[in-house]
Model the fold of this input.
Amino acid sequence: MKYLVLLAGLLITMATRAELVILQYHHVSTSTPAATSISPADFKRHLLLLASLNKTIVDLPSAIQTLRQGGTLPDNAVAITFDDAYESIYHNAFPLLAQRRWPFTVFVNPGTIDAEHEGIMPWQQLREMQQQGATIANHTQDHPYLIQRPDNLTLDAWLTQQVDNAEQRIKQEMGQSNRLLAYPYGEYSLAIAEWLQDHDYLAFGQHSGAVSSQSFWQAIPRYPVAGAYADPDTLNNKLQTLALPVASNSLVDPALGSDNPPELRLTLHSQDLDPDHLRCFASGEGQIDHQVDVTGTTITLTTQATQPITQGRSRYNCTAPSLSKPGYFYWYSQLWINTSVENR
Ligand SMILES: [Zn+2]
Done:
């Protein structure tokens, strides 16, 4: 009897495993840079696909809070986010999302809004979206490469200027402060992540993967789904992913040092994947070699590309199919930043 109760508990835990997929868009337009845009027609296709797959579109701040508290989310939870507050979001995405009453989050730069940059929404349009259930969150004051701190500023002064000041400005205009930050260009360092943790911010990158209760809360993955990734078929694959349960000692600073190509070593604990089915991939190189070492329930995965990383930003992605959820893949992405590339 005792074992039956244990087994039932295990099955319930597996069935209600809380996972979240976060989608990241910029422009929804055909007249903006292709690399960061999705056409209104493809955006509409994305929404139709989400609806036909019975995804539950969740409010990002409350979904993240639920995950952090170890609570459960609806099965198939998806959050929709937009970076930079481009006007095309207001004109082309907002009406479609409002029609479905789907919540979404816009990460904004108060500096560019206050300077009335062309193509950026004014506060009034953001307030209109907020009244319909949108969250307006922090994308730093001026959208810098956050890891490139001016020489005359301490890290604390730099992040106070870029993060705290932006948060205060958003609170003034929107009456709301969620302390959620999206890193400009998805770039962060472990020192920045630590400052944010100390100052009670959660932060989102642009490296891919699903989110679980074990995610690193200052490097939360999102799937970029514009540009080359706008195809609804590739979106479908991303929606069927789970967070690879990587231990926190696997966190690595994304800025490349002298070790290039870098070696990545991940420690993970999971009985829902076959270590023999782990695979790793590098941007521009496809599948790369890896070694797996299993000791008890601990899996150590080591991987390294063969070619040095020369582009500004690139990634290693490691995946493995789920044993309990056919068609689903565990996914982990490590960002690499090549700071010798100035415009990246
Ligand atoms: Zn941005």
User: Anything to note?
Assistant: Confidence is low (pLDDT under 50) at residues 8-16. The first helix runs from residue 2 to 15. The pocket of zinc ion is lined by residues 83-84, 139, 143, 184 (CB under 6 Å). The chain has two domains: 17-242, 248-337.
